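P.,

For your records, the input lines for the assembly:
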Amino acid sequence: MTRVCVIGIGHTDFNSMTPGMGWKEFMYEACNKAYMDAGIDPRRDIDSFITCAEDYWEGFSIFDEFVPDQIGALLRPCCTVCGDGIYGLGNAYMQIQTGLMNVVSIEAHSKASDLLTYGDIMLHAFDPIYDRPVSGPVQRPNYAGSPSYTEESPKPLVGASDEKERIHPYFLAGLEMQHYLRKTKTTEEQCAMVAVQNKRNAFSNPYADYELNISVDDVMKSEYCFSPLKNLDVSPTVDGAVCFVLASEDFAREIGAEPIYLSGFGWSSETPWLSTRGMEADYAKKASKMAYKMAEIKQPTRQIDLVEVDDRFTYKQLQHLEALGFAGEGQAGRLIEDGSLDIDGWLPTNPSGGSLGVGNCLEATGLQKSLEIVTQLRGHAGKRQIADAQTGLAQSWRGIPSGSGAVAIFTRG
Amino acid sequence: MTFTEKQTDPTAPTHWRGNMQADYLYPNGVAGDKFFKHLKNNDNFLATVCPDCEKIFFPPRLYCEDCFVEIPGENWIEVPATGTVRLFTTATINAHGKKMETSKTIGLIDIDKTDGAMLGIIKSSEMDKDLLGLKVKAILRPREQREGTIKDILYFEEI
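Structure tokens returned:
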């Protein structure tokens, strides 16, 4: 079986808003940089193109139809994975393993600032019959076109009891955080430390947009938005696009690329029913198990030099570290306390600044995290470089209200 | 820099402001239909029991997600419209990211005699009360006003 290498990475700047750039130009920029990085011509050298996107985030239907021109994929095999960027890496890996494709491009992006109704779009991901109405009133559809529809048809508001406003869907993170704190005896202060550290790490990352020098006290004093979740526990959204180019080992050798291997990946989905779903990131446990097996990792704490884990909410970083096997239940809080997760600690975590420091880039989250791992393994991470990094892990979660996630492991050859 | 030209005047960018007309009928399905029709005329809930693992689904489903087997008609049971607060949060931010006029307490409530839970608004006279483990009951609309949707459950309150 051939091994699969990362031969190119590219990304735009990450900014809280980018009104001067069209989303296609944004994607073009990230892809162009990745192709330049790999030293290849996409019109000649890339066999297959994968974008990772979700129609609702984009604002139009059938996203894959809008893709080929800005990524160099016109009249070439091209498809969209409706999911996080790491799912795209996994699909590219498999395409290369079939022998059918030699070089594959993977792109994911966020233009979150173009969304005028971010919270409402996320509410559309809640079960429409049982869960969504609890958040509050929505205009009932007018059924235009149906035989019983008239202009006078009543259009009552649908929602729980006498609610006048819709609750932001992040309430679900508030519930899950309460579960995590109660079950593991982790404290709100330990979660606050995650925000402090990640936002501080972001100072050393030129493309991070939410670097901040704050104290645990600042986080603790920030207002509760969904208790026990506070405003500074939440990663703000950011615009950014990332592109990866993967290739077979033979092709990578041919062009003299630095040998960074995608050595393992995994993905898993829990039930979408909140009624029966657990709140313990089982998706991350399963996905990492699959990735460890593929990458022949038996002791993650010894064999992995750095990790980028999903930290869209502070507690998520701690919960995910436990789910990935880097700490026992309720022990991740101690790791943030004792400096283990610092850039010079034994388990450097989110050296890029993570979503708290870089920003929440929606479906590009997994690729942003993979970007950091590959940059570190190449030794190009500048001030935040982790010495002798050989193996790194990137993990992403699909965000509220999902119970899905993926893991990718990269190894320096 | 990828492009030779970039916008540098912050007042220059223009846009098209659009929206998505996206209305749907979401069928309740066979299981949901039975559940909501029952709720319209009764003050308790329906649930289904997996014939293999005996997991009790609330809201009821026609199949077991663990065993992947069909749940037969005789495995429908009635359960009380009561439960225990497993988790709760006080929400202060609305879907637009702005502070709400009044905060709301939303809970995940384990429904009695089932393995299922549901989201619900919890009303309590005491602000800042620790609601974990609280026994609650669903306050339903008066029967004549019910329409056979989740909206018939107005909120939950302490028993």
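Two observations worth noting. The mean pLDDT of chain A is 94. Chain A touches chain B through 60 residues (CB under 8 Å).

Regards
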